[in-house]
Amino acid sequence: MLISLELFVMLVLANGAPVVAARVFGRRWSAAVDGGRRWRDGRPLLGNRKTWRGVVSGTLVCGLFALITGMGLLFGLLFGLLGLIGDMVSSFIKRRLGLASSGKAIGLDQIPEALLPMVLAWFWLDVSVAVVVSVVVLFTLANMLLSPLLYRLGIRHQPH
């Protein structure tokens, strides 16, 4: 049970650290991961909200948390990076579907960024499939339920 909670917290950290870093650093180090490039359809690859500052902050925070909790620095760095890659995959798909970066896409907004790192946990930590599924479902529900509150509090830029 404790490992499930720790993995859930790591997903929250990977997702939340870029938001906190943006608040702390403002426009500094906010270069877009896609460099402003566009896909064949003329739409941005990812959009300007996916920044290198976010990738670094989310990855490092997960690495430090995993180190402190005994899961290991390398595992934490990879876990955080995979969570952020999953988020970028979601953004790429949303751009191809013509959805704005703030557009709501239930499931697509949460599952890839939770599932990719949890597959790593499944192999690396030998957690069960039930743990993988439960953490992904918990993260998805928590994200959907808490995002409107975080938006009202001025922490998130969109309510979903």
From TrEMBL:
Pfam families for the chain: CarS-like
Superkingdom of this protein's organism: Bacteria
Signal sequence extent: none
Keyword terms, alphabetized: Membrane, Transmembrane, Transmembrane helix
Transmembrane segments: 55-85, 131-151
Protein name per its UniProtKB record: CDP-archaeol synthase
Taxonomic placement: Bacteria, Pseudomonadati, Pseudomonadota, Gammaproteobacteria, Pseudomonadales
